[in-house]
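Q: How do we represent a protein-ligand complex in a form that can be generated cell by cell?
A: Start from the inputs.
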Amino acid sequence: MRVGFLGLGIMGHAMATNLAKAGHEVTVWNRTPGKLVEGTAVAPTPAAAAQGAEVVWICVSDTDAVESVLFGPGGVEQSLAPGMIVADSSTISPSATVKFAARVKEKGASYVDAPMTGSKIGAANGTLIFMVGGDSTVIDRLGPLFAAMGKKIFRMGETGKGQATKLSMNLQIALIFEGFAEALTLATKLGVDTKQLVSLIEATMVRSGVVEYKAPFVLNRDFTPNFPLRLMHKDILLALEAAKEARVKLPGLETVEEVYEMATEDGHRDLDYAATLSLLEKWAGVQIKGEAA
Ligand code: NA7
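Then emit the C-alpha cells for the protein with NA7 bound:
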C-alpha cells in the first residue's frame, strides 16, 4: 500500500521500518528533519507525505502534535481525498479524536484510532497489539499494515474507543507498577531480601505481566527509557481528563499522578517510568538491592 508515515520517534521509527520491510511504499515525515528510515522516501511536510497516499499513519507525542500534523501549516488536511484513511497510533484524548475524525470525514476520508501496546521491543519486532476504533470495513482495509507492525488487533468500537481503551490500559500499568515499587521500598526498609521477594511475587497470585517485565530492569537499576516517564505521565493526565469529562472519580490515579509530577521535578522525565521508584527510595532513605535472577 502507499503509506505516508508521520512521526519517527522511538515507536514510529520502528513501525515505519517494518512497513517498508513488508514491501509497502512508504514516505516518511518527521518534525525535526534528518531522521531516516531505510527503504522509504522523505517528505518535507505532512501534506507532502500524504499526497497520493492510500493511508496516512500518525505516531507523534500528544493531542496537540496530532492536531498540528493534521490541521496545522502544511498539514495532512490539504492532501485529504475521498477514500483515504487516516490512522493514528499516538496516545491522545478520546474526545479530541472524535473531533479530528469528524473534520477528516468532511473531506470524504476515514479515520481510525489505533493506539498500541508492546513498547519499544514490540515495535522493533513487529509484535505490537493495537486497540482500534473505527468503521469495520475501513479497519479491514488496514489489515496488511497492522500485520506488518503487530501481532494482533482488538476492535473496540467506533472512533475514539481505541483511545479510551488505551487510557484504561495504561492507568492499570501505572497503578500496578506503583504497587510493585511501593512494596519493594517498604520491604527494603524492613530488611527483606528483594530478590527473594520478587521470586515470591512470581510464584503467587500477586504476579503480573507488568512486574515480570519490569523486575529485571528495576533490580539492575536500568532506567533507560523503554516507555519514558514523560509519556506515561501524559497518559495519566489524559485518563484523568477523560475521567473528569465523564464525571468519573479515580482516586488512586490522582495520587499516582502526584508521584509522576514530583519525579519530573526530580529530573526523571526522560528516563523510563520505572524511575518513579527513585522518588520512593529517596523518601524512605533506602536503595533497592539485587540483580536480575
Ligand atoms: P517519542 O520517541 O517521544 O517521539 C515523539 C514523536 O512525536 C517524534 O517524532 C516527535 O518529533 C514528534 N512530535 C512531538 N511533538 C510534535 C509536534 N508538535 N508536531 C509534530 N511532531 C511532533 O515518542 P514514542 O515514539 O515513544 O511514542 C509516540 C506515541 O505513541 C505517543 O503518543 C506514545 O504515548 C505512544 P521530533 O523528532 O521531536 O521533532
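Residues 82 and 108 are 4 Å apart (CA to CA). Residues 7-12, 30-32, 59-61, 64-65, 68-69, 90-91, 231 surround NA7 (CB under 6 Å).
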